[in-house]
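Supplementary Note 3. Input sequence used for the single-chain structure prediction.
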Amino acid sequence: MRDTNERAVRAMRDFLEALGIDLAARGMEKTPERVAKMYASLFDGLGCNTKDLWGELFHTGADGLVAVRRIPFHSMCEHHLVPFFGEVSIVYLPRDGQVAGFGKFVKLVDCLAHQPQLQERLTAQIAHAVADGLGARGVLTVVTAQQLCMTMRDSRAHGTQTVTSEYTGAFATDHGLCQQAWSLLEGVRNDSNA
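The predicted structure, written as discrete structure tokens, is reproduced below.
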């Protein structure tokens, strides 16, 4: 890991100098090291195996939908390497009452968000990881985010939110069940307007 960090520091130094930034200026001397360390943290989800995150599953005997709403996340857009951030909400239909601890969903989101990403892919990856990891009969994932590439670049679309969704299994085939899942997430919209 040390070689990788030193290589990243050299690359960041070269990059900043190529842009004309004076790294000898006061306060800039350690910037390449700080940036390399920050990006190592932002991309610490690379190589993460989502199947290893679930740990022990619990059999509850319950048949109802389970929702985990408003999981905060931040990620880096793979097109410009600038942040996008927001909230993830997940609804799933357990198979035979099999559920995971709620904290596992936070770890799942972090694992998948901490790598160069696209919001659409992140949304799908979360839904499929829940379906595969828990054997869930259906999953609905909704991601609401602010994309800094929209607010910092040409369009300057301040305040714009992007919303993506992905659903699997029973939610893709049973309209009534899908509506139930969406209704569990309606509180996300209602609470945010309060």
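The first helix runs from residue 2 to 18. Helices lie at 2-18, 31-42, 103-113, 119-134, 148-152, 170-173, 175-193.
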